[in-house]
Amino acid sequence: MRLSSIFAIAGTFLLAAILAWVAAGFSVTVIEDNSRTSVRRALELQGMEWAEVDADGLQVFLAGTAPTEATRFAALSVAGGVVDAARVIDQMLVEDSADIEPPRFSVEILRNGSGLSLIGLIPAAMDRDVLLERIVKSAKTDEVTDLLETADYPMPAGWETAIDYAVRALGKLDRAKISIDARQVTIKTMTDSIEEKLALETELNRRIPAKLLVDVEVSAPRPVITPFTLRFLIEEGTARFDACSADTELARTQIINAATKAGLTDDTDCVIGLGVPTPQWGHAGALAISAIGELGGGSVTFADADISLIAAQGTPEDVFDDVVGALDAALPEVFALHAVLPPPEDNAAPVTPEFVATLSPEGLVQLRGRLGSERLRQTVDSFAKARFTTESVYTKARVVEGLPADWPVRVLTGLEALAYLSNGAVVVEPHTLSVVGNTGNKNASAQIAGLLAEKLGEAEHFKIKVTYQEKLDPIANIPTPEKCIAMLAEQQVGRKLNFEPGSSTIDANGASILDDIAEVLKSCGDIKIEIGGYTDSQGRETMNQQLSQARANAVLDALRARRIITSNYTAVGYGEANPIADNSTEEGREANRRIEFRLIRPETEEADETTLEAAEDAGQEDTSADTNPDADPVAEEGTADEQN
Questions:
Q1: Is the full-model pTM beyond 0.90?
Q2: Which member of 113, 120, 291, 638 has the lowest number of beta carbons within 10 Å of its beta carbon?
Q3: Could you say which of 3.40.50.300, 3.40.1520.20, 3.30.70.20, 3.30.360.10 is the CATH number of the domain covering 355-472?
Q4: What are 467-494's pLDDT values in tens digits?
């Protein structure tokens, strides 16, 4: 009896020892896994993916090759912030600095009416203060924003020469972008006239140092018009311009005044540009327009120095001769006049062949009418599909014989003119070509007139009746910045932008949300937006701020991947700041983990409105892009840092 009691007691102690050993082993494993995971995540948030992390009991081992000694020390500091620094064992190597490729030193100088900015990377050996003094002296301004960074690498050959040239050039430029590296200086600027452009180009190309490449691009604000086109018509008693170009304000005034006397009542946008064939353009245009007014109808077309005047059908021959003779005598010698008096209408004439191409508002193109050969029909079909996409073109034109020799050129030119319209039609006939429709391009009429005059000849008779509609203009319909923020809010109603737990990786389900957001931003034009990342209050404040910054950066990168120009976008991590719900509940924490889009206004305007505020103003619920809870159910009882 006593022996069995002894065995029972001994067995109890043995079982307790075994259980204690198993529990201790399990605890060590849990500590190792938690330490390894926490340290690795902290290093990845700091961009130190090169670091390798392992754990053995309470000890955490860091391995891998650090780019620099400073980076190695930073990795030790990050790991020491997660676990006790005494537990961190350093087994890292440092990359040999001799094997590191030196960075590309470059500077961009941006100058406009609001000041001057310096952006780029310069050698640490360069005296930064002296460089700024030289720039201030050359530019004669104290409004310099210094955004330069330095790197401790040898100064490349030719660097000082390039800087010297760029600083000298800066003194000659009021508005410019100057890009500098050791081998080349690129200057982009603009002037107010062609004369100033030529003088500045000559000045900048003087005294270029040997072995330094200099690229100078000087533009003038006035467009180059080629051919220089003017087309004025009086049809059915109504006067109008299909195209109006002038080289000076004086020439523009001469042309408009002559058209007004001839019966023009609508406002006309006469483009002032470069490329005029003669300084007497305005005088010649006024003479020709006055001649059409005297004839009581017809059209006059200028294509550079060639003038084609076509009188209205039924114009008396003696009147035509008198007006055209006086015009020909008064025109400057540089111009060549070709005048046509159409024959009287013959009611017994045969049916006029025609080719018609129509473009619907939905983008569908239908081709019908007559073509001279099967080969031309195939050519026209292929040309139309290349212009308007294969799926949108339907051809039912038929092949007939006896069409004019220039019929192929007229048909293809008509299709090219149709491409300038949003919707409309082109009608090709033996003696005329008509273009009718709507467009969102203010210059479409002028461009079509120039095309027809170039392809068909300035003496050709053609009709253009193209109406500009602002709703079709992609530039005029760019939404306001405030509307863009409201549109972003609408895209986020009832939807959540998810991140994988404890990371900045966007969940696969977030791709469709980002696609819709990208489509909105494509229509918003050049506006400044802040992408703000937020977390809940669980965990340490520093870690929350870093995680929110990484997530905001991830959204910015995702938009770049969708071909959104993000140069005016800023990603900012706010951590647990500005909560929109109670952090003491899971629902509140979920609401606080979010991404917001905020409009960045000029400093003189009121506080920015976020997508969340835009939704609230519209009477909606919180529609900011949320994140899913980052802690999975198994980890709900883990460390606070794992739940943000």
A1: no
A2: 113
A3: 3.40.1520.20
A4: 988 777 766 667 788 888 888 888 777 7
